[in-house]
Amino acid sequence: MRNIATCYSEHAIKVSDSYCSGPSSSSQSYLSPSLIPPIQDSVTCLYTANLSTKKHLLISLTWSNPQTLALTITIPSDAFKFTTKPHQFRIPKGTKKIEPPNSKIEIHWDLSAAKFDSGPEPVTGFFLLVVVDSELTLRLGDAHHEVVPGVEIAKSALLSRSERFCGSGLYSSRAKFCDTGTWHDVSVKFSGGENLELGVWIDRKNVVMIKRLQWNFRGNQTIFVDGVVVDLMWDVHDWVFSNNSAVSGCLYGGAVFLFRTRSGLDSRLWLEEKNLEHKDERIGFSLLICACKSPPD
Fold it and tell me: Which Pfam families does the record associate with it (predicted)?
């Protein structure tokens, strides 16, 4: 059986950037009242950061467990992993200092006024700071927080975003596909019943519609957003043909939808973290949406 990477085709359907580069004023709705909203189980963002010392870092941040809320921060190059416990957010403001072998790391957070949608990731009213070797390496949120005078600010960027859902329906996210572009609403509507269909909307404009997923369970199409080539790839094979009700990982079981910007002549379709440690290599942005039929045991 071919994997998703071998499904790539030079004859992918293309949508002009003028068609999907801004919000739509159309009243046509893509929502269906018959669809049960899926549950967002976790959100993982991968950032790259360059310190003034020429040190290159990858920072992985995962919000998970909507009921009790857990936060995991991982810096692979420093063999550093910090995971909050549910009780730590009962008083949702704190500071954690850790000294792994090669760095000094400080984490500051305040979720006391944070607001959430349906998932575990805060939307507004919070801040999260990661300081590595006295440099502000990552700053998230919109709440006010005074940065210590004299602390340098490292250059950082979002490389990828991965969202995990349970149940079929409408999966909604936001993405900025290039530095000069704007934020876009991205929606994937996957009907996993008898009539298997896949629809993709950018800013409420339908850009992809795939039917008969029993035969088109893997594939790709190309769209243009803000002048950037974005490859959309999907793999719903395990959802359609597997008897497993849960998914053990994003790339195994369930359904997978990947939006990935092309970087030069780069032909790799999946984001490989082992290749991201080379700071001179140009890597595009990726949005990965994973869905399983039911929560794992």
Answer: DUF868
